[in-house]
Amino acid sequence: MAETYNGYCVKCKEKRDFEGEIAISKNGMKTAKGPCPVCGTTVNRILGKA
């Protein structure tokens, strides 16, 4: 179930809305990961503690 998030694309150097999935990082933080709609680079957004 993909949701829309707003994150910073490092390659485009702009904030973009992207469709992402929630994942748990190694240090226990919830993150949204998805592709940038313009360039296709993976965009991450940290959501907080799991």
SSE layout and pairings?
Elements: E1 3-9, E2 14-24, E3 29-35, E4 42-49
Antiparallel strand pairs: 1-2, 2-3, 3-4
Organism: Dactylosporangium salmoneum
Protein name: DUF5679 domain-containing protein
InterPro entries: DUF5679
In a nutshell, what does this entry contain?
With 50 residues, this protein is an all-beta fold. Helices cover 0% and strands 66% of the residues. Strands 1-2-3-4 form a 4-stranded antiparallel β-sheet, with no helix packed on it.
Report strand order across the widest sheet.
1-2-3-4
Element-by-element helix/strand order: EEEE
What can be said about the biggest beta sheet? 4 strands, antiparallel
Average pLDDT, to the nearest integer? 91
Amino-to-carboxy terminus distance: 18 Å
Count of DSSP E strands?
Answer: 4
Rg calc: 10 Å
Description:
16% of the residues are buried. Strands 1-2-3-4 form a four-stranded antiparallel β-sheet, with no helix packed on it. It has 50 residues and is an all-beta fold. The protein is 0% helix and 66% strand. Strand 2 (14-24) and strand 3 (29-35) form a beta hairpin. It is built from no helices and four strands.
